[in-house]
Amino acid sequence: MWVSSNCLYFCFSLTTPNYETRGFCNTPTRGIVSTMSAATRRSTRSNRKTVHYDESSDVEQDQDAYIPSEQDKENAPNHVTKSSTKRKNSVTTTTTTTTNTTTSKKRRTSVTINHSRCLHQQQQQQPQSKRGRKGKGKKRQEDLEDDWEENYLYQALSSPEINVVDLAQEWVETYEEESISNTTDSTTITLLMNLILRSCGSFHLFQPHDLANLESATSTVEELTLAFGNQSTHKFPFKLVPVFKKNVLQFFQHIIEICHEKGLLYPPYTQHSEEEEDSSKQSPLMSYLITWMTSLTGSAIRALRFTSTEISMIIQLELSKIGKSITTNLSRLRKHLTKLADERSTKFKTITSTIANYESQLDTLNEYFDDLASVVVSQRYKDFDPQIRLIVVKYLIDTVIAYPSYFCQSQFLKYFGWLLSDPVNQVRNEITRDLLKLYRLNKNQEIVSGLTQFSTKFKSQFIAMCEVDVDANVRGNCCGILTEMIKMGFLDGKDKHSVIRAFPFGATTKLKLQTEFVKFIQMAMEENVNFVLEKNQLIFENDRYILRDHDVKDILSIKVLAQELSFLVEKEEPLEVIFESAAMSQLYFTKLRLFLDYLLTDIAELRKDKGVNDDEEEIEIEGQDPDLDQIKQLVQLDDLEKLTLLKAIHGIIKAVMMKKTNKQGGVSREEEEEVKSTIITQFIDYIPKLQIFCSKSNNRYKIFISAWQDLIDDKHNCIFNYYIKLDKIDSYESTIVSILQYFYEFSLVDEFQPFFEKLFNSRGLTESIKLEIQRIVDELVENTTIYLRDNQQEEEEQQEDIQNDSLIDMDHDFVLWTNRQKHVIKLCREVSILVQKIKLIGNYVNIANLEKIDDLIYQFNNRILNKFDLNVVLNQWKHNFILQLPKFTQAFIAIIELVFIIGGWKFEKIIDIPQQDQHQIDIELELEMVGDVVSNLIRYIDELKELNEGDHTPGDLGKLIDFKCQLIYQYINLMISFRLFYIKFQDDNDFKHFKVYFRSNKSVIMIKQDLQMELLEMFLIKEVKLANVLEIELDRDDEEGVHYEEYLEKELPVEEESTVFSENEDEDDDEKTQRHEKQQRLLKAKQEQLKQDEIWKLEKDLAVYSLKLISLVKLQLISNNVYQRLKKNAGQLGEVYYKLIEQEKVVENRYEDGEADVNANELTDLGIDVGVDTTIQGEVENAEVVNDNESGVADICNDGDKEQDVSMDLQLELDV
After folding, report:
1. Would the CA dihedral through 1050, 1051, 1052, 1053 be positive or negative?
2. What number is the average pLDDT over the span 143-154?
3. Cα–Cα distance for residue pair 258/247, rounded to 1 Å
4. What confidence tens digit (pLDDT) does each residue in 15-45 have?
5. 217 φ, ψ (degrees, to nearest 5)
6. Region at 471 (left for phi over 0; alpha for psi -120 to 50; beta for the rest)
7. Cα–Cα distance, 433 to 852 (Å, whole number)
8. What's the rounded Cα separation, in Å, for the pair 652 and 683?
9. Residue 812 banded pLDDT, cuts 50, 70, 90
10. 1167 Cβ partners below 8 Å, 6+ apart?
11. Distance (Å, whole) CA 1171 – CA 1199
């Protein structure tokens, strides 16, 4: 019974919105004949709900799509393969060859003619006016709606309440009835294919005669693609309506399942037995389905590719489940057959026949798999749409798991390996997550066997992705895969170290990612522990060994852990971060006492546990128990392993202090605090012994100091509080005093910087500790002064020897002068450690009040700064001097920085003196020595003028420029301090000799014109370096030279890395192309990253230096012309620099109001604002630009009374 046209129109209007038809031909489905009963139709159309969906035209390509190699780019419809020819032969056997050929020609002609005729009619009916066109379009749309008959499968599957199994059963029964009638044009196949088209929103559907000839599948899909592409809009319910998509996929799954039960997946048995070997083994139904489904996967319309690909993959998945079932049954029957002795029995023949049938079915399924793999998987895995690539990955991994004996092979797994470098994070995430699911099935021997070759080939890429992938989820999945590889025996020791080295040490790392790496470390450790225990099984079975009260097996696990991680200590990686992580600390925080006992206890105390044999009389002679000696050798720690355990203890105790040990279920806050307090109390008892142990080596003491700087941090509940609770303040002070004494006696300096910073900001800075610091800094200043003074006597004796030596033919004065330079350089480096220690404490303590501090500055000037002559050094030993210039720069600049710190404390002391007491201060005596340092800096900068004119290599020239830049930084810092002090007190002060000092030392409050040009020259050098990396052309003033390119260093090419994607003789051309493209992408990404890092480094350097110059401009120390040059190229030199210049335009406005420039002959005294914008300053400081040498910029600020603190922030002041 047919449904009326009005009813059809009503149903269509509910589910399908209006379309605009513009230049395409519609083929209605009125000619489709259904053999289903009216009752069946009513059952499938009942309880339908309206479905709404919409998506714009989807023909364009995705910008983030994966770009395969040139030889693999195939987006056009696929060509007919040999297997598809077999499918056509199988269909031909069911009909008359002549009739099929004749009708196929007519049908191909029908499709083409209908399409051309519709286009011609539209051109003839096209109106001349827009109004006419609009009216005609509406009429055409209404006519199409009247003629339209919706696909009943599409309507039925749109309902959430539809019984998909019944619908699939009805469709299969209809197909069977149609097959019996020997109908040439299959309406059931047409309904199925049109369901796919309607699921994509196509307004153009197949006719039965369009699908009859499989040879025309490619051209028919091309015509459909052309018509579909001309639609102005289309609906995409398959993607946008989850319920509909779920029903469609289940519908195809059930069709395959039912067809298997009915034998429709396989050709008739009699036909199969008589066919030739190279003929198709497929059934007519599957020939139709696979041919047209795979043809649609090659369409240029993304919606068609998306839908047909997912349906094809779900069909392959269902076939794989059937294949697995058949394989299992076949294996069972073969085993049963081997038990039958009588080959003539009926049971034997029945089983043999069943086996043959199963084997035939497997051959048929394998042919389906080959077709789907060669057309769908091999092409769509590199589709431009990442969502389609995701579909292939998702279903292929499920297929591998469902039927591993066939699919868990390199020919399928290689697609996962190739897509590991997909540019879309979501695709890589899906691949690695699915592979992790597959690797976790390592109890299945078929999967393990299949993954062996794949793991060997791609494990290096998994290791690389653990470290470099930008997606944390991908890194975690890769680490999980490598953890499973350990269980399967695919990783060696070198591979394990590479993974552990990639541990996410960053503070912002996700907890899940760190947890995966901790699991990897645990698995690697457990494997080694089990190996050692199995190797020494007899020893451990006979006796129990203990160290203190710890079982030696527990100690052995710690030993193996130290062995596994010791290479990180050797490479100076922050191993403590691993144990500080929540996942790792949760495993080991309760074993802290075990770590400490194992590290601090003499291994000679290891013994057998005699508790079981107390009644036995045993006489042990030392050295005569081979088992005990062997155990001692097993657990003996070398120096590197001891350092490893020290770092582990540091990480664990820091995690406990910071409460990073994960809360366990049912543990209250009070119980957690009690556990924490117990652990820290135990650790406090071990601290004296631990300190003695660490004091035997600088490397150990570095770790000890690093741990203490975390323990005394108030942010983490300072350990000082626990000492107070335990009434052990004396023990705490004794530990700190011992640390300070180690600082005084040994050469560690930089390692103590964070310790002093935390100490001076903590509640644990007691009076006795302050007195100890005062004593140490007094002795350091005195020792440095004495060393410099004694060294002068040594130099004078050498000079007398030279003058008395008559064998020297050269000028004695010249020899004396050159030897003096050697002596100065040597002396500078010898006192470097002492200077750095004084400077470190001087950052927190007012060392300007020390009794011998002025004598120290005098010795610096007299013994080093006044005698050092760069002209002599560069003329006589340029090459040797430049080789040691980096170390000399560090030592030389440290002296000037110390003078700057002392000067800062002096200025602060003078500023704080009440005006009525100012007459007691002699400015000339207070500042004379500091002013001499400024004069020497001016001389050094002048001696380094015109470096480009010398015969220097680019590398040597770069080192000299860096040295000159450091001198300029120190010069600017001192000049700002003097200038601010002078501005504050120039009009109102009672200091002695104030005017006399500044009148005779104008160099501390003004900058001559030639020196201003030197400061600008340094800016121009930094500017051209940044412009060179940015590849921009700079605007220059007319008087500027063209020699700045000489300061550019040659770029070193980035070498290609072959460690991740190495050559393999077994690779085919496609694999080599894939590997080469991965190498090129990685190389390009690495080059770009290096370039961006270099740009950021140079931009920060330029911004900091410009802030210094702007500060001098505001203080009228340099000409406004310098500022005009700073902003000349501001728009091209980066965002930070541009903001800096934009926010300093107020300086330019002041000069436009008529204020005079500062020149070399006069000084205008103006109480101007010298504040640097806090926004720009914050940006530079947040970028970690401002180092110790640049702290002067942060000091350029004044309040409403123009008062300026020119020293660093005061943390502690000691009255000495």
Report:
1. negative
2. 62
3. 16
4. 333 333 333 333 333 333 333 333 333 333 3
5. -60, -45
6. beta
7. 68
8. 11
9. low
10. 983, 1202
11. 9
8 Å CB contact between 1103 and 1137: yes
Q: Got the DSSP string for 109-164?
A: HHHHHHHHHHHHHHHHT--SSHHHHHHHHHHHHHHHHHH----HHHHHHTSTT--H
Q: What is the DSSP letter of 1209?
A: P
DSSP 234: B
Question: What is the enclosing helix (H) or strand (E) of 547?
Answer: strand 545-547
Look at 62-71, 426-435, 671-680, 997-1006 and tell me which has the smallest mean pLDDT. 62-71
Find how far residue 784's CA is from the centre of its chain.
47
Per-residue pLDDT of 1132-1164, as tens digits, reads 888 888 888 887 765 555 555 544 444 433 333
pLDDT digits 0-9 by tens, 347-385: 888 888 888 888 888 888 888 888 888 888 888 888 888
Q: Which residue, 330, 310, 459, is CA-closest to 399?
A: 310
- Euclidean distance between CA atoms 257 and 269, whole angstroms: 19
Phi, psi of 545 (to 5 degrees): -115, 145
More confident call, 867 vs 954: 867
The confidence score (pLDDT) of residue 839 equals 94
Helix (H) or strand (E) holding 125: none
Cα 55 to chain centroid, rounded = 35
Computed over its alpha carbons, how large is the radius of gyration of the chain?
42
Helix 669-694 vs helix 698-711: crossing angle, to nearest 10:
150
Contact criterion met (CB below 8 Å) for 302 and 58: yes
Share of the chain above pLDDT 90, in %: 25
Please name which of 832, 1002, 835 lies closest in space to residue 902, comparing C-alpha atoms: 835
Q: Is 409-487 assigned to CATH 1.25.10?
A: yes
According to the model, what pLDDT value does residue 1153 have? 52
3-state helix, strand, coil in the chain (%, to 5): 70, 0, 30
| Short-list 973, 1030, 996, CA closest to 1207 | 973
Give the model's pLDDT for residue 805. Answer: 55
Q: Which residue has the higher pLDDT, 1211 or 1179?
A: 1179
Among the listed residues 76, 59, 300, 308, the one whose alpha carbon sits nearest the alpha carbon of residue 199? 308
Structure tokens at 545: 């060994």
CA quadruple 323, 328, 332, 338: dihedral positive or negative? positive
Residue 1049 is given by DSSP the state P
Helix axes 425-439, 472-488, angle to 10 degrees: 20
The structure tokens listed for 170 are 């009805």
- Distance, CA of 109 to CA of 571 (rounded, Å): 75
Q: Taking the CA of residue 384 as centre, how many other CA atoms within 13 Å lie in the half-sphere pointing to its CB?
A: 17
Q: How confident is the model at residue 1105 (pLDDT cuts 50, 70, 90)?
A: very high
The span from the CA of 517 to the CA of 577, in Å, is 12
Bridge pairing between strands 545-547 and 607-608? antiparallel
> What gap in Å lies between CA 649 and CA 670, rounded to an integer?
24
Q: Which residue, 170, 235, 178, is CA-closest to 208?
A: 178
In 10 A of CB 597, how many CB atoms? 17
**Residue range 1052-1081: mean pLDDT, rounded:** 57
Q: What is the DSSP letter of 922?
A: B
What is the rounded average pLDDT of the residues 564-573? 88
Helix (H) or strand (E) holding 550: strand 550-551
Half-sphere exposure of 1135 (CA within 13 A, CB side): 2
What is the C-alpha separation between 814 and 802, in angstroms, rounded? Answer: 11
Question: Is residue 1010 within 8 Å of 1161, Cβ to Cβ?
Answer: no
C-alpha 156/C-alpha 175 separation (Å) is 18
Band of pLDDT at residue 983, cut at 50, 70 and 90: very high
Residues in the chain: 1216
Contact criterion met (CB below 8 Å) for 333 and 351: yes
pLDDT band at residue 1211 using 50, 70 and 90 as cut-offs? very low
Cα 274 from Cα 269, distance rounded (Å): 9
pTM: 0.73
